[in-house]
Amino acid sequence: MSPLKRFLTFALPMGCKALGTQPDTAAPLPQECCKAIHDLLPSIVHGIGTEEYNGRLGTYYSYQQHALSPACVVKPTSANDVSRILRIASLQDCAFAVASGGHMAWPESSNTGDGFLFDLRDLNQIDISLKDQTISLGPGSKWTSVYAAMSVHNVTTAGARVNDVGVGGFLLGGGVAYMSNTHGFGSNTVFNYEVVLSDGTIINANSTSHADLFWALRLAGTNYGIVTRFDMPIFPSPAIWGAVTLYPATEQSTSEIFADYEKYNRDNDNVDTFKSAVFVNMPGQNDMMMTVIVNSAGQREPPMTSVDHIQQAEKLGSTHIVVSDVMTALLEAPVRTAWFTMTTRVNRQLFLDLNKMLADVFQPFEGKSGLSLAMGYQAFQKSYIEATHDSPVYNSMKEADDDLTLILLMVTWKDPKDDKEMKKATARFGKLAEQEATKRNLFSNFIYLNYANGC
Question: Any signal peptide, and if so, which residues (predicted)?
Answer without folding.
Answer: 1-18
